[in-house]
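Q: What structure does this chain adopt?
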Amino acid sequence: MTEPYDETLRPFEPVRDAMLRLADLLEQNDPTALAQLSTVLGTAEFVTKDADQAVLAGILSTGRILTPKPGETNGWYAVRLREAVSG
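A:
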């Protein structure tokens, strides 16, 4: 039997901080625009450009939480991302 999927993450602090910054930037850019995976990935790369490669890898390894849901705005995606790493 498989365990139920838990969207609450417990990443190490640099990854958590980068994900919170990612949420902030996406929300500040245009909170009402539809969240696009390409924008999320580009912004994740931007927020980790001066960090250890493990930070970007940590963000990318979050899988489903990193992928915006269909119809989700940047604002709602940012909320969901913050909840996932703060829980």
